[in-house]
Structure formats: structure tokens, C-alpha cells
Amino acid sequence: MDIAHQLAEEVRNALGETPRVIVGIAGEPGAGKSTLAGQTQLILEQAGFKTAVVPMDGYHLANEVLESLARRDRKGAIDTFDASGYLSMLRRLRSDASDTVYAPLYDRDAGHGVAGAIPVASDCRVILTEGNYLLDGDAPWNEAAGLLDAIWFVQIDPLVRRERLVARHIASGKDPDFAEYWVDNVDEANARRIRACAAKADRIVDPG
């Protein structure tokens, strides 16, 4: 059984009579969090469970805001996200299943979030939320774990992860040399912080 099927099976077992289950997928940049979330969503929906994927990346601060804070040159660091906004969304998803919640989506091509792009209907029983800092111990991020039913940590070969990141940055328009510089000096600094929290996860997985 592959990792996506394992996660889907765990979610199905956790549902029972519970109206809604929220599972976090954490991991370093380029580890494959979005891919795992998408595969798991497909499996669950094929089994009849209405599922939504709500990425933490939708809460990136706008580039203009990052420039005003002198943080644009390290976009992706923990203080370049609207942590309180993300946590508020999780609380709504956790406590209020009577209405549709509209979550933001991060547009990689445009480089910014799109408000209200992901509708989570009141009858959505499974929510998968993926992001870098779900296990971080600093406030307010340390509140995230208490709002989730489980957190899986995705960990893959670091060389493969680096290759993915460089390719991603080049695809988004960065010069190849600058893409490698960004990965080595920005992404990897974030990855070290994220990796240090892996032991807090309910399970560490390598999707291969």
C-alpha cells in the first residue's frame, strides 16, 4: 500500500461518527506535501468522502507587504506568513461546520495568494491542510497541532528535494543560477528549522 492509500485509510478509520477530520501534512520545501495531499484527496473522494485540501501557502504575505517589512528576499521563512490568519481559518473549520468556509490559494505563477479560492462546504468531512510550519514550537504556530487530528511529516532524499526546488524556481521565472542560490540560502535555512520539528509528527513518511 502506498503512502497516499495509507493516509486515506487512517483518515477513514478516524472518521467513524465524527462529523469532520482535519489532518495536517508537514514537511520541508519540495518534499511532496501538495502531491501527497492531492493523491489522498482523490482516493478519499473515490471512496465517497467529500474532501478539501487547504494549503498553508495561501497565507503568504503579499510581496508588497514583504518589501515593506524587508523580508521579500527570504520569502517562505516562518515570519513571511499570516500565521494568525491561518490559525483562525483552522478554528473555523474545526468549530463551525454549518457554513461554507472560503480559504485562500497560493498562485505560484503570480507569486501571491488568491483570497476565497477554496470553498470548504459544510458537508465536507475530510480536510487536508499542508504546509511547512505545522509542527513549529514558536507562538502562534504552536497552536496548530491542537487544531488538527493528526500530522504526517513527509521526508524524502535531500538531493531529490533540492532538484525539485531548483526546477520549481526556474519554472517560476528565476534565472538558474539565482534559483540555486535561493535554494541554498533561503529554502535550506527554512528546511533546517522544519526538519528539527519532525519528531513531533504522528508519523514520518517517505512517499518515494
From TrEMBL:
UniProt keyword NADP, yes or no: no
One annotated GO molecular function: kinase activity
InterPro entries named in the record: P-loop_NTPase (IPR027417)
Keyword Transferase: yes
Source superkingdom: Bacteria
Pfam families (alphabetical): MeaB
Keywords of the record: Kinase, Transferase
Chain ranges passing through the membrane: none
Protein name: Nucleoside/nucleotide kinase family protein
Organism of provenance: Ancrocorticia populi
